[in-house]
Amino acid sequence: MPNASIINQRPTQSFLKALQASIWSHPLDPAFFEELSPAQWQQIVKLSLTQTVEGLVCQSIQNLPGEHLPNKELLMKWIVRQQRVISYNEQVCQTISFTNSLFRENGINAVLLKGMAVAQYYPAPLLRTGGDIDWYFPSISDFQMANKLMAIHGEDYRIQSRIDTDYRIGKVPVEHHSRLINMYNPFVQKFISMFEMEERSSVRSKHIAKGNIQVPSPMAEILLINTHILHHQIGYGIGLRQLCDAALLYRHHHGEYDKEHLKFAYKKLGILRWAEAHHSMLVEVLDVDEEFLPFAPKRHSKWNDQTLELILRGGNFSFYDPGNPDIEIPFSRVNRPQRLSNSFYRNIRVAPMEAISFPFTQIYRKYLPL
To answer: Please, are residues 7 and 308 in contact by the beta-carbon 8 Å criterion?
Structure first.
């Protein structure tokens, strides 16, 4: 771990212990919360908010003995934020149920990705801070039919690209995708297409939002979540919530897929070195049991240290980076060239083709018509 890093600060250590206790359903050791100052408690709350894990951490904190709890005013504000997470997720579940029913009534085959699908692997699914709803359509005809349908039923319907659309249902954003795995490297697209075709027959049905919802196969779901993490790391960064998703996926699907096949997929995609370092992060930060991983973690010291520092200082998608406070400029990005340049040099060691392909993909998307 890096010297003089935020990781070594006591509030960070306490925060991480609370997060681990929440996702693994472990008792929380009160020793990590003895004699914390109000300022240190404020830092723990701030970390939980910027990493979008406030509901999870608040839940485990409430199990502490009374003398180890933060002051009543701070705790009540935290619990209110936790209730907002639950309330929003209940809206998400209602929207999933509504859109899934529309798709079924119109004979559209839809698969739920990420978000609430992954939340099912958490001890308390409604405590995972939610975002948008992602639907994947294995065939172009289903994708096009779903787009026409929701252009009528959704609000603010928008075509993002040839393969993505988005809209709102009330306050909940929804996206449609015609691709399961999204990577920048153009030379792996054929392999991705073949992989997606192979995995179509292994789609599963899960009880989500009071209904039966289709979700990807275990291997497809693991590859989807982890390549999505890399997708954002190549850009501006990720938060700890994304690492929690990966950790719980690996544990839940342990023994349900061919580990050698998954390792082969990482290698074909050119991201095996990244996956090894990523696995090391899961063990180092979230205390993942190595038994749940498909292959041994391997620490790439400089990458791991820089990435962990960025995650902890920058928060969710690096919006809270103190040197580049995007959160103060909603829907904007500050210091883009320098930040993307830093990301390029940080990630080229572990995922070279993804790092090299990223700027060309951005130019292609910006200047070529939809």
So the answer is: yes
- CA-based nearest residue to 230, from 220, 242, 241: 242
In degrees and rounded to multiples of 5, residue 291 shows phi and psi of -60, -30
Whether domain 6-367 has CATH 3.30.460.40: the reply is yes
Tracing tokens 């998954």 back to the chain, one arrives at: 262
Helix boundaries (H) for 253-349: 259-268, 272-286, 301-314, 336-347
What angle, rounded to 10 degrees, do the helices at 352-367 and 336-347 form?
Answer: 150
| pLDDT of 2 | 40
Tokens found for residue 134: 């992602």
pTM here is 0.93
pLDDT in tens, 282-329: 999 999 999 999 999 999 999 999 999 999 998 888 888 777 777 666
126 and 92 Cβ atoms separated by less than 8 Å: no
How far apart CA 224 and CA 219 sit, in angstroms, is 8
| C-alpha separations of 278 from 120, 233, 306 in Å | 22, 11, 13
Alpha-carbon gap, residue 359 to 32, rounded angstroms: 43
Closest of 238, 232, 227, 246 to residue 321, by C-alpha: 238
Phi-psi region of 8 (alpha: psi -120 to 50; beta: other; left: phi over 0): alpha
Residue 309 CB neighbours (<10 A)? 15
Beta-bridge partner residues of 271: none
Mind listing the pLDDT tens digit for each residue in 76-114?
999 999 999 999 999 999 999 999 999 999 999 999 999
Return the closest-CA partner of residue 138 out of 79, 87, 183, 180. Answer: 180
List C-alpha distances in Å: 221 to 7, 84, 204, 271, 319. 30, 27, 11, 17, 26
For residue 98, give both structure tokens: 């509504």
Cα dist. 157→105, 150, 169, 186 in Å? 21, 8, 10, 28
Question: Domain residue spans in the chain?
Answer: 6-367
